[in-house]
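Kindly inspect this chain:
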Amino acid sequence: MGNSSSAPWVRLSFCVPSALMEAALAWVEGEESLGAETRELADGEVAFQLYFSVENSPEAPAQRLSHALGVPVAVQIESVADGRWEEIYYQGLAPFPVGERFIIYPGDAPGSEAQREDRIALWIPPGRAFGTGDHATTQLCVRFLERHVQRGNRVLDVGTGSGILALVAASLGAARVVAVEVDPEVACVALENLRRHRVGAVVELVEGTTQSVSGCFDLLAANLRSGLLMESMADLAFLLRPGGMAVLSGILIPEANEVQTAALGRGLEVTAQASSGEWVALELVKPC
């Protein structure tokens, strides 16, 4: 290896049809990339770019990705020669609004001159943990929290990923937020983001499942795949106080009825359904 200025980074680029975006995201989440970026193209495709150190660049990515998606996918592999890749990468990512009240800066905290007065700023570097804020399932959860979090609330964030929903709840005035994450590596990423925002007095990170959580919560947000939501439904219903509200996101439209049936079977009532593209979020209440 040469010094840090002689191509220490590798960039993988590929495009998939939008219908395969979720399968591609699942593959990306399994790769140990230093950063990942997606961009929707005008022709109905989604472009992906992943960055790796040379030492950790994946083997046979096109073959493995094609196998995971069930269709041939061409993967372009390039060396990135600038040793300041990480800084340049973050500088190239534009901030974007989330919900009605937040703006996400994909990198370090912005200077005061760069912040918008009309939105609450969060800074979350893209990486291995899901939830930088741009995905529809995250957006649906943020909008629910914006409508329902009140000062003094106790909020549970199940499958916290990057910690974004816990940060949103804390920023909106929740008195206590418990963020649950089963993946130890992702939990470390969430902890870094929580520390970056100095919310340790409000947000507790629990590495484990809903079985690891105790207490009773006014609001609950679970952004998980439908199968996990249904597996966890008994715990979610138990942890929600009578009169408490929940949002379940990460549900594809064809799966919504099955998730709704599971929720009803645990005594939860569906009060609303929000959608974005192919995704649905169910809003629920636990009767008093």
